[in-house]
Amino acid sequence: MKATEIDLHKELKKYFGFNNFKGLQEDVVRSIISGQNTFVIMPTGGGKSLCYQLPALVLPGTAIVVSPLIALMKNQVDAIRSLSSETGIAHVLNSSLTKTEIAQVKKDITDGVTKLLYVAPESLTKEEYTQFLNTVPISFVAIDEAHCISEWGHDFRPEYRNLRNIISQLGDVPIIGLTATATPKVQEDILKNLDMPDANTFKASFNRPNLYYEIRPKQKTVESDIIRFIRQHKGKSGVIYCLSRKKVEEIAQVLQVNGISAVPYHAGLDAKTRAKHQDMFLMEDVDVVVATIAFGMGIDKPDVRFVIHHDIPKSLESYYQETGRAGRDGGEGHCLAYYSYKDIEKLEKFMSGKPVAEQEIGFALLQEVVAYAETSMSRRKFLLHYFGEEFDEETGEGADMDDNVRNPKKKTEAKEQVVTVLEVVRDTKQLYKSKEIIFTLTGKINAVIKAHRTDAQPFFGTGKDFDEKHWMALIRQVLVEGYLDKDIETYGILKLTPKGEEFIKNPVSFLMTEDHNYEETDDENTVTAAKSSGVSDEVLAGMLKDLRKKVAKKLGVPPFVV
Ligand code: ADP
Ligand code: MG
């Protein structure tokens, strides 16, 4: 169908009540309507759903929407049904349906009533469903949260790997992939796995100019630091992310005894409590949710004013997604993360139980988190570079919105050093990771260097005047400036880019800053905060008990539930 034949603005208004498309929506919609494979990369909240919902509503046939979470599908179906007088306009097909319900869904599809059919990937692979879907006209298949296809994404789902096969069985239907994951590697995986190298690709900017990024070293006083931060943001909504359920409970309690209205949220709580705590947060009965990553998928509270990471997350994507829940309304959003290398080691230890391939991916992603935390360059520039996006730190939107830019370190000229680094990369046949380059410069040997001894010889020990930390900082900055490229698939081997080759020939000024030197600290003792604010163990226990009673009374549940 020709998109030009449809008055898209009229349809937009008719179905959704919106006067205008947001961002790239209109182009995406046109691409889908014209029957082309389409790939959409937009940050969370960017309006991806409408990109396939509108075409589904105006095209003949039924669109299949693959989505990983039943809750997300149900929300969308309810929303679509509310736009129409026909309940059958959207359905979810899943294993919990009764025979009668399945019959109704099939009838609505056959009658041409159903425009959107939501399915979980595991349901779509069921032969019974595929056979049926093969007999009805399908307008297109949309794969929401398409990053689930990639092991390099933050939410890998093996079932997503089979989607291409199933879709092929449905005949020649266009495929639409949608994701909020912006890393080039994940995008490449998606296109490859869905076998649509020719897809029309639409990528929106991932810059969130209203978010302020800050990293603080994690010290024993982290809890009192958080309390102070929240007090400075009195009455504002915020989320605190912790890695373990235990930590979530502990922090929630420490906040409560300090008079901050906070509730815990994690998968270990029963569904009823979780729903209750979520509602309390949305309805502003409490200011703070202390949560594991179980909290957030599909949560749309526009005025979250801060997101605190008590523990640094395991990848920059998780960090971006989680911090992204702040300032959805465009207002203030303070993203504060506590970092200590000990936490990184804990995460590594945790990963070491996993299969080797998964481990290596995990370590590679973790190294990016380390680099982001330790760098003293523009955090926004670093983050956007990780997502394959260039950012001008002088003129870009939100350029001054991070701790590093607000409190800049002294810059020093490093032109010659950059040339040296680039030459090492070039002359060692581009087989080195940062570690080998740094070792070569500081005169250390490892197995990889031994294997390229002759190539590395001219540079061996020539950078001894600086320590490893200095060279690491420089390499990180050289990467972000695009003179080197890191191949994440090979777990970090560095390659010279054309821009880097040019730099060797015609070096220009390169001002660098040293990385942060965060003191190593630990946070083993969580009660420290309460103690340091002058509360004894006994008093603390008593306070907790009273508080539990109070909260329980408010929730109408027995005290042991909270
Ligand atoms: P994503 O899936 O990209 O995270 P959603 O599809 O959930 O984003 O949309 C985010 C929000 O943007 C929703 O509240 C939606 O109603 C709103 N929205 C989408 N398109 C438009 C538009 N054209 N005009 C105004 N609001 C829109
Ligand atoms: Mg979405």
From TrEMBL:
Catalytic activity of the protein: Couples ATP hydrolysis with the unwinding of duplex DNA by translocating in the 3'-5' direction
GO CC term (a single one): cytoplasm
Alphabetic keyword roster: ATP-binding, DNA damage, DNA recombination, DNA repair, DNA-binding, Helicase, Hydrolase, Isomerase, Metal-binding, Nucleotide-binding, Zinc
Known EC number: 5.6.2.4
Superkingdom of the source species: Bacteria
Residue intervals of the Helicase ATP-binding domain: 29-200
Record protein name field: DNA helicase RecQ
Residues covered by the Helicase C-terminal domain: 214-378
Source organism: Flavobacterium akiainvivens
Family membership: Belongs to the helicase family. RecQ subfamily.
Shown segment, full-protein numbering: 1 to 562 of 731
Needed cofactors: Mg(2+); Zn(2+)
GO BP term, pick one: DNA replication
Molecular function terms, GO-annotated: 3'-5' DNA helicase activity; ATP binding; DNA binding; four-way junction helicase activity; hydrolase activity; metal ion binding
